[in-house]
Task: structure prediction
Amino acid sequence: MPGTISKSDVQKVMHDMSTDEMNLDDFIERIILLSKVRAGLDQQGQGLSQEEVIREFEKPRSDRKWN
Result:
């Protein structure tokens, strides 16, 4: 799921770049990065801990949670 960004987020990126002429590719890359960071933060805590992963790998493949 993509992270959502607001109009004010876009305006902040534009302000941070603060030149009269901005490279559109750089601007788009920053917006995409911001969106991906927000998506990652939204997913925080939804994964398995390292200990849970180790326990799952110790089980037979057919008994693992993610199958």
About this structure: The chain has a mean pLDDT of 84.
